[in-house]
Design goal:
Layout: E1 2-11, E2 14-24, E3 29-33, H1 40-47, E4 55-60, E5 63-64, H2 72-78, E6 79-82, H3 94-104, H4 110-123, H5 139-151, E7 157-161, H6 169-182, E8 188-192, H7 196-202, E9 205-210, E10 213-218, H8 220-226, H9 230-239
Parallel strand pairs: 3-8, 3-9, 6-7, 7-8
Antiparallel strand pairs: 1-2, 1-4, 4-5, 9-10
Length: about 240
């Protein structure tokens, strides 16, 4: 489903990604962890074309996303992203936020986009907020709207970039629960997070990054409970306090 081959990404003199390679199978749930500045967010932004690698290749469901003339419309259809800061349109209602991209980008008929949007908003527990504007919602509710918006694009892959990092502690659980529910389905999920409970619960594979490289990967049990890697153990000693 996703093939990442020797990706490098430079921002000026800073090398954010260093020869990163990763294979993510269809329907798999991969959680990427690591300290701030380790390249996690840059990596998933390269997957959906928000960042262009300096070198290397990314293939998404047969499409070479890093090709000079990649079909970005197809990539937008196949890959949706949930950002840490929600990125909702403040002047549009919840339902309008969820339906805008399917109508404008995918050219889905408005009635169908609205019908599907209502179903996804019900799925994330917000069917009573259709006509509400984002400013009237809590952070957790806004992030759930963002997840419903991603689902309404009917993507094969959903990328989550620190989906709980902008939330107050009491709101983290409601978003984590929605993501855990999604993880029971057949969509491919790639999740960057500092929430170790979520990582342990949903990951088929856990990937630990540091200083732009993949340091270790394996099942949650292998990394949380069995890894002797001193860098990984030092990371866990800080985040699992």
């Amino acid at each position: 489903m996703i093939s990442i081959e020797k990706i490098n990404k430079n921002f000026g003199t800073v090398q954010a990604l260093k020869d990163v390679s990763l294979e993510i199978g269809n329907g798999k749930k991969v959680v990427i962890i690591g300290p701030s500045g380790s390249g996690k967010s840059t990596l998933i932004r390269c997957i959906n074309g928000l960042e262009k690698p300096t070198s290397g290749k990314i293939i998404v469901d047969g499409l070479e996303a890093t090709a000079p003339k990649a079909d970005m419309r197809r990539l937008c259809h196949d890959v949706a992203m949930v950002f840490q800061n929600f990125n909702l349109y403040p002047h549009k209602t919840v339902l309008e936020n969820v339906t805008l991209a399917p109508i404008k980008v995918l050219k889905i008929p408005r009635d169908k986009a609205v019908e599907n949007g209502k179903l996804y908003l019900e799925r994330v527990g917000l069917s009573d907020k259709l006509d509400t504007f984002p400013a009237k919602l809590s952070g957790g509710q806004q992030q759930r709207v963002a997840i419903a918006r991603a689902l309404n694009m009917n993507p094969k892959i959903i990328l989550f970039d620190e989906p709980t990092s902008a939330l107050d502690p009491e709101m983290i659980g409601e978003v984590a629960d929605v993501i855990a529910d999604l993880a029971k389905g057949n969509k491919t999920l790639v999740i960057v997070t500092h929430e170790m409970g979520l990582a342990r619960e949903v990951a088929d594979e856990l990937v630990f990054m540091d200083e732009g490289s993949i340091v270790e990967r394996g099942t949650p049990a292998q990394l949380f409970d069995q890894s002797p890697n001193p860098r990984l153990r030092a990371f866990f000693s800080k985040v699992l306090k």
